[in-house]
């Protein structure tokens, strides 16, 4: 078994799912709540998980995680957690079930309301080590939430806020690439671009953290080098292994902070008029944010080109656009059905998002509005924007 001890304990290997019972015992969890979504439950992965746990034990399952986790879903899962006397959680699925489980782990040991723990509302120091233990089992290769310190949850009033604390990092991350073998091509592409965006944004963050930058660059090379093969040949175990490692490494670098892509995709993901996939949003927004940031990160752009084996004359934004095209990703926000009349609200929310502070180029409402307009129309972001 490949065991990695970095920020948390990570089991990374095909077949790692079989050791979850040992992790429960090591963490002292006697009655876990399994948190997942309907899709994961439907394809049998929850049954597969239960089969490797204690025989004869009835384990409660919450399968009502929405595409973007909500406060109401957290409260519904919390009710199930409390009614069964649970003392820990297992999240299996993409970033949404893992983030929702973090919300349950928090509120099972901390008084509500949830809002008070949001990072932008001063909630970080309010989150203590009392958070219930969580085991995260990703079934996509993208979010990095299995090793991330944040949970993104949409509150009842529509705000999608970040809840951030080292105590929210799952106590175990079970990274079994075989669990991604059945992932459809479109979802493989979207989640893979999510991981690639994480690696790029954390590398470009101005915070000083050379170890995180090295991890981000390694994850970027793995992701870009394998995403097309993973999409075209979903049963390729090597490609799946590399994409899951790219996603993990993107998550490990969250300590350095993200940037304008996420500052925009977070509030966009909270829109009630349309359901927008986080990874797809990141893929669409990334080229436009790269254009916006170019003047403030020239040396790092040169490093990115060098690590990707690109000529100095290659424009990174155009390179990402070309990759998106080959993967079948949308090119604009208009193609995704994003309502243009939401841009003023999204731009304002982006300035308040925790990811905005670590963008290499400071961005205000007018800047975010310009990026949104360019990404909607499919036109370059003006240099002076």
TrEMBL record:
The UniProt keyword set, sorted, is: NAD, Oxidoreductase
Superkingdom per UniProt: Bacteria
**InterPro entries to which the protein is assigned, alphabetical:** ADH_Fe/GldA, ADH_Fe_C, ADH_Fe_CS, Alcohol_dehydrogenase_Fe
Q: Which cofactor does it need?
A: Fe cation
Q: Where is the Fe-containing alcohol dehydrogenase-like C-terminal domain?
A: 188-376
Species this protein is from: Microvirga arabica
Q: Which PANTHER family does the record match to this protein?
A: ALCOHOL DEHYDROGENASE, ALCOHOL DEHYDROGENASE 4
* Family recorded in the similarity comment: Belongs to the iron-containing alcohol dehydrogenase family.
State the Pfam families in the record. ADH_Fe_C, Fe-ADH
Name-wise, this protein is: Iron-containing alcohol dehydrogenase
The residues forming the signal peptide are none
The Alcohol dehydrogenase iron-type/glycerol dehydrogenase GldA domain extends over 8-177
């Amino acid at each position: 078994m490949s065991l990695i001890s970095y920020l948390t304990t990570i089991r990374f290997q095909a077949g790692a799912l079989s050791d979850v019972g040992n992790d429960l015992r090591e963490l002292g969890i006697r009655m876990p709540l399994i948190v997942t979504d309907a899709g994961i439950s439907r394809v049998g992965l929850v049954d597969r998980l239960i089969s490797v746990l204690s025989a004869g034990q009835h384990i409660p399952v919450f399968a009502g995680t929405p595409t973007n986790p909500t406060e109401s879903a957290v409260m519904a899962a919390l009710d199930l957690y409390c009614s069964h006397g649970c003392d820990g959680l297992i999240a299996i699925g993409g970033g949404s079930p893992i983030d929702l489980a973090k919300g349950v782990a928090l509120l099972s040991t901390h008084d509500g309301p949830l809002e008070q723990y949001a990072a932008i509302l001063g909630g970080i120091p309010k989150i203590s080590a009392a958070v219930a233990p969580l085991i995260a089992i990703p079934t996509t290769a993208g979010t990095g939430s299995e090793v991330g310190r944040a949970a993104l949850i949409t509150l009842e009033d529509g705000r999608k806020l970040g809840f951030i604390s080292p105590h929210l990092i799952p106590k175990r991350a079970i990274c079994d690439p075989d669990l991604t073998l059945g992932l459809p091509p479109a979802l493989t592409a979207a989640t893979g671009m999510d991981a690639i965006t994480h690696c790029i944004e954390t590398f470009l963050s101005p915070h000083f953290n050379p170890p995180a930058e090295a991890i981000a660059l390694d994850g970027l090379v793995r992701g870009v080098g394998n995403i097309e093969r993973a999409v075209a040949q979903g049963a390729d175990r090597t490609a799946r292994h590399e994409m899951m490692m790219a996603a993990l490494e993107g998550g490990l670098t969250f300590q350095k902070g993200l940037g304008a892509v996420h500052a925009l995709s977070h509030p966009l993901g909270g829109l009630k008029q349309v359901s927008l996939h986080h990874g797809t949003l990141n893929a669409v927004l990334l080229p436009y944010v790269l254009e916006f940031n170019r003047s403030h990160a020239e040396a790092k752009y040169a490093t990115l080109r060098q690590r990707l084996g690109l000529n100095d004359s290659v424009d990174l934004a155009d390179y990402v656009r070309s990759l998106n095209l080959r993967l079948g990703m949308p090119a604009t926000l208009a193609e995704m059905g994003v309502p243009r009349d939401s841009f003023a609200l999204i731009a304002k929310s982006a300035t308040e998002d925790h990811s905005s502070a670590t963008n290499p180029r400071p961005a205000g409402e007018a800047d975010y509005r310009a990026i949104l307009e360019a990404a909607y129309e499919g036109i370059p972001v003006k240099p002076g924007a």
